[in-house]
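TL;DR need structure tokens for one chain.
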Amino acid sequence: MERVDLNRRSFLVSATAAGLAFGYVSIEGVGGALASGIGSLRFRPAQPLPWYLLAAAVTTFAAGDLVDNVLTSAIHQDNPLLSFADVFRLAMYPLCAAALALFIRSRTPWADLSSLLDALIITVGLGLLSWVYLIGPFVHSAQLTGLQKLISIAYPLGDVLLLALLARLLSAGGFLVLSLRMLTFATFGLLSADVLYGLGRLNSTWAVAGRVDGGWVLFYVLLGAAALHPSMVEMTVPLPPKRGGIGRTRLLLIAAASLVAPVDGLVQQLLNPGHVGFLHLGVSAVLFALVMTRMWGVVRAQQQGIARERTFREADTALVAAVDEGLVAEAVRTALSRLTSGQPQLGVGVALVEGKELSRIGSGVRTPLAALEPEALRALNGLDPVLLDAATLGELLPHPVPVAGVALVLPLRSAASLIGALLVVGDERQVILMQDAIQSIGFKVALALQRIALAREVQQRASEAHFRALIQNASDVILMVGADNEIMYQTPSAARVLGYHPSDLAGLRLEQLLPQEDLERSLSKLVRMRRYGIDRLAKIDWQLKCADGSWIDAEVLCSNLLDDPDVRGLVLTIRDVTDRRKLERELEHRAFHDSLTSLANRGLFFDRLQGALRRSARTDAMVAVLF
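>> reply
TL;DR here they are.
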């Protein structure tokens, strides 16, 4: 993104200024608050509210420092414990907690039980240490009033809350984001300073402007620097869903946190032989339950992974066996239905690019590409899956479309060309969770569609080659004539039957092949087919002129294909029947003439007589026979 790739020099200058321009803790706090606000206005993250909350938190904490400085320097109070400074400082914790919670919700909009359990295990382990060494001593202190005890334990409780939220934020991943790193170290600086502050209060060693202030200074400076860095926009970008596995680093942290209670209980027992560690036993039991729940999640994730791989294998088999686009779409729907078993079903559709239109398989819905919304066009022209508002794609989406649902558009490409798109509609959280699976299946769908298109093209070419071989070796002549009787196409057999080279017939008019004295009768049926469209198929007897000037008798089958956009003409199938006509005439002559004298016989006499009688019946003429 352009905002992330902004000039880093400006960030370094701004961050340095934020750290050096303020000499006192309170002024540095104001600088950190300003840096948070400036960063939000400059880089405009998708959700600026968490950064504004952090700015407000730093402002209240700085206000507490300012009040504390006034009380100790101007009024000369000695380390006041209960004052307005504590009110401002404690207000920082819920503001920071709300900001961290919004970061968590933005980065992980789905339910991530494994990350939550990891954060709880770490928080419970460190929370025990906070109770034993900070909260417990304040609660049992005889020198503090009830209200002072409440204020004193509020600080470590706030730290435990921030620690829990930070652990949950980090457990989702994405630690490579520099702003998240700086926010993490800023929080550690705050927690470290608060712990040292509490221990100083307990041991009466706390002094204003001591080394503990370095932790708060680190909190202010790093928080401002995190807001001024361009990567701050990535703090509210959703992370890709992760499976419930467990890495080496996380396993070590969980193991260390789960050992906190028994190890500290052992230490307390060694320091105080009569100590009864009910608290440590209870925390150990809670940690054991959390760890067992986490391990159950790991086992369940492993089982789900096995089922997921089985579904992918079955989908691969179905896609390989698919012989048309409909079976491909059905295989995708079946696979995603099994992957979302027990959850609301996703609407799944496969759309193909056909010319300048996008057609969803199996629905008959066709939408011109030019009619799509700009967001949909940008998604189709990209490479990665894109989430869109469901209304953007309209009728292309499979129904039913859930209320406030989103559509995931995954372009399907063959090399650099777009062949279609995989469309998945459903609840936003569920679609995001299934995004990796959809992308994996989409790649195989593109391969299946390419294979089907290639097989169809090979089959078509083989069919065309077969048809071409039949046409080239056929004994009949096939001519295609246009509206003006001009010959537009002729088969190679025209050279064998009529003696014309294909180049001689191209552009020749049909009238030039027919006898001029019988031209009107010969073309009458063609005229009727063109003019009235009465006959789709007609049979005609013609005499055709050959290239050497001789004539042949031909039987012509005429097909009317004027309405066919690929032909737009009349197709004449011509068969040479010269020998057959000659044989028919010879047989007819033998039937009506004597074989020895070639004179007319009785059969011819009766044939002529019957014809004369029929004519006389129509015209009332007299018939006479002369001997």
